[in-house]
Amino acid sequence: VGNESIAIQTESVSTGDGHSIEVAANAGTNADIQTAQEHGADGIGLFRSEFLFLDRAEPPTEAEQYKTYRSALESFPDDRVIVRTLDIGGDKQIEYLDLPTEENPFLGERGIRRSLGPDEDLFKTQLRALLRAGRDAKTGSGTLAVMIPLVSTIEEVTDARAMIETVASNIETKGVDDAPDGRVETPEFGVMIETPASAFLAPALTDHVDFFSIGTNDLAQYVMAAERGNDHVRTLGDYRQPAVFRAIDTTVRAAEGTDTWVGMCGEMAGDPSMTELLIGLGLTELSMSAVSVPRVKTAVQETSVSEAQALVENIREATTQDMIKSLLRTSVR
Ligand code: PEP
Ligand code: MG
What we know:
Elements: E1 13-14, E2 20-27, H1 30-38, E3 44-48, H2 62-75, E4 80-84, H3 112-115, H4 120-136, E5 143-148, H5 154-174, E6 188-193, H6 196-200, H7 202-205, E7 211-214, H8 216-224, H9 242-255, E8 261-264, H10 275-281, E9 285-288, H11 293-301, H12 305-317, H13 321-331
Parallel strand pairs: 2-3, 2-9, 3-4, 4-5, 5-6, 6-7, 7-8, 8-9
Antiparallel strand pairs: 1-2
Helix pairs in contact: 1-2, 2-4, 4-5, 10-12
The protein binds phosphoenolpyruvate and ligand 2.
Ligand 2 binds at residues 149, 194, 215, 217-218.
EC number: 2.7.3.9
Binding site for Mg(2+): 194, 218
Subcellular location: Cytoplasm
């Protein structure tokens, strides 16, 4: 089936039995925001803010970031825009940041580890820009949410939260020239679940966050010890591996009965053959590259939650990737 044959739906969608699921898009640039709108995305589930920092000689100023975040929020006035704070390190390098030379950069100083360490000043500037944009954006019910990448301890989460509180209270007392009044409300706050540590700690993390967003690209890489993008270990690093499924299942179960909601922003979320499984697990938000939005919206509408839960029960019993694949095949109508 060609992409053209899938109708674009701008309204939010529900399963056949009436459970609404947010189908959002991932973005890194203003152009991506527009593509997301054109494909009927229900907001932005992952704004990869590091794109603002790449391919330039120095970091973007607070004013420049403010403008970009505010414009993203105003592009989706009725939807949530989740901005992920700087995720640098790993495979993403930036000249002006003086990153260390590491033998295993994916296991090194990356994501929140840098933001709470050598890049703390950048992190504070980014948070100021975000909080001000969230306060000033002219939106309907749309809201800013902030999430942090590569979490592996509770302290990282409490430290990042404390930093947000501090930045927010400084904005309140000092004000800023272009918007001197107005209390800054702290935005919805979440973490990426993309390390095995964060999946194991999910029950404890629910006390500290409003939401989880499962990043299957890194989660699969780290659970399976199989480098993402490395063709030699592609089958191993696949999200249909039972060990990856179990990490996801553990995370969603941890949030059950709490106020923490669970979404997904890794590649798995944009694969329509996974939609039924993810809904059956209990995810309520899926974020993906914009071009996948129409297909996944259709897949949501074709799903019945009770059938999806039966599929999950079967997949829980699967102990090999082949078993998972064949269960998924039989479920696809
Ligand atoms: C992920 O790891 O699944 C993810 C969505 O983040 P990124 O691909 O930017 O690392
Ligand atoms: Mg990631």
